[in-house]
Amino acid sequence: MSPPGWSRQEMAAKVAADIPEGWYVNLGIGIPTLVADAIPADREVVLHSENGLLGMGPAPAKGQEDPWLINAGKQHVTLHKGGAFFHHADSFAMIRGGHIDLCVLGAYEVARNGDLANWATSEADAAPAVGGAMDLAAGAKRIWVMTEHTTRDGTPKLVEACRYPLTALGVVTRIYTNFAVIDVTQHGFVLRNKHAGMAIADLKRLTGAPLHAGDAAHV
Amino acid sequence: MIDKSVAKVEQALAGIEDGATILVGGFGAVGQPDLLIESLIDQGARDLTIVANNAGAGQVGLAKLMQAGRVRRIVCSFPRSAGSVVFEALFRAGKIELDIVPQGTLAERLRAAGAGIPAFFTPTAYGTRLARDKETREIGGRFYVLEYALPGDVALVEAWSADRWGNLTYQKSGRNFNAVMATAAKLTIAQAHHVVELGALDPETIVTPGIFVHRVLPLSARKELAA
């Protein structure tokens, strides 16, 4: 039997439920892209893509791909009514200039002080590739992370201090894992809510730094 | 009469020298000026520094130029992508230098070069290994990294429409680095899907005014290349 936990779609639904109407949001490559499909149809959230799109829409139907319209992950996408195109310097002005309300990123590790490591797995990495991760992490108003709570072998990804190369210092404010939703505060990791099948003691054991249960313990 | 349009790719690329720094537009395959890039092989320039977001894919465009051994160094944000086999083989063999730059820093270094700004402070990469040994400064309680402008000797860009004054428009997400790079080089060369009469482009929709552009090659020249 698989351990208790939310599916990636359920994680995406939790993130989407916390995004209010009117936010401009950048979704990182990987699990965060699932959030796009989880945003309720009646809620206007404007998606930004680093390569020069605002108002990014879902993937086109098969056969309807426009070769000129891709996202930062180089997948074919569509553009919503009200969407806009712009060049790379303007795109990153939006990011660093604090105009993006939220960026949701994947992570190798998040430290209790909000440090993020999500771009390189080791110092010896043959050909590193950073893309826009460091700009997004440093520039967006809020950084939320979506990640499995541990690696496949059970090693915590929420840690005292990152061992992987850092992407940015002290930027992550919330983490959505397959087991829990956790705020990153000046006091460290604080549980917002957790999967019903996961005991607090087990959750603490799978977290690499103190996890304050607070009022969310019963959720 | 000002006429920046050229009929042949040889004219478009004339004068590019060994050791040049060449800005190459595009994001992945979209907006990448493959005709100009591949024609650099026949043009003959060597020992090039290429500035581009990606390091090519498959065996076309940038990958083909690298395979031909013309690229000494590449400055980019994301060299690893599906199909970047040529770059990775050269990198592992120590035959190409790699300078990794965060994507937004890359865009802003190019913008700065085109705008006469020699350097700037950015929050991106502060405290990471990509800012190692770089000058930093605390401004208003936050830490920033000093980054320098990144000018090119040449920019190769892909436009959708162009006129003989060098005014350019782009197509959807094909604008990407093209519009920024067009401002940042001593010699900007555009390959254009459509070259139209002067006055045919709506001034409200011109993204790159012709002042930034020196040569325009219609993509119909591709047929000549094949012939």
- Overall outline of chain B: globular
Strand content of chain B: 25-35%
CATH topology of chain A: Glutaconate Coenzyme A-transferase
Mean pLDDT of chain A equals 94
Strand element count of chain A: 13
Number of helices of chain A: 5
Average pLDDT of chain B, to the nearest integer? 95
The geometry of chain A reads as globular
Superfamily (CATH H level) name of chain A: Glutaconate Coenzyme A-transferase
- Measured on Cα atoms, how large is the radius of gyration of chain B? 18 Å
**CATH class value of chain A:** Alpha Beta
| Helix and strand composition category of chain A | alpha/beta
The parts of chain A where pLDDT drops under 50 for at least 5 residues are: none
CATH top-level class of chain B:
Alpha Beta
Radius of gyration of chain A, whole Å: 17 Å
Low-confidence stretches of chain B: none
- Summarize the amount of helix of chain B as a percent range: 10-25%
Structure description:
Chain A: GO terms for molecular function: CoA-transferase activity. Chain A: Pfam families: CoA_trans (PF01144). The complex is a heterodimer of chains A (219) and B (227). Chain A is of the alpha/beta class and 219 residues long. Chain A has a single domain, classed as Glutaconate Coenzyme A-transferase. Helix content of chain A is 16%, strand content 26%. In chain A, the strands form two sheets. Chain A has a ten-stranded mixed sheet. Chain A has a three-stranded mixed sheet with strand order 7-6-9, with no helix packed on it. Chain A starts with 7 loop residues before the first helix and ends in a 7-residue tail after the last strand. The relative contact order of chain A is 0.15. Chain B has helices at 9-13, 34-43, 62-67, 85-92, 103-115, 178-181, 221-226; strands at 21-24, 48-51, 71-76, 97-100, 119-122, 136-139, 142-148, 152-162, 168-169, 185-195, 215-218. In chain B, the strands form two sheets. In chain B, strands 1, 2, 3, 4, 8, 9, 10 and 11 form an eight-stranded mixed sheet that branches. A three-stranded antiparallel sheet of chain B has the order 5-7-6. The mean pLDDT of chain B is 95. The radius of gyration of chain B is 18 Å and the shape is globular. By secondary structure, chain B is of the alpha/beta class. Chain B has a single domain, classed as Glutaconate Coenzyme A-transferase. Chain A binds chain B through residues 49-53, 66-71, 74, 79, 85-89, 91-92, 95-96, 123, 126-135, 138-139, 165-169, and chain B through 27-30, 53, 77-82, 87-88, 91-92, 98, 100-108, 110-111, 122-130, 170-180, 207.
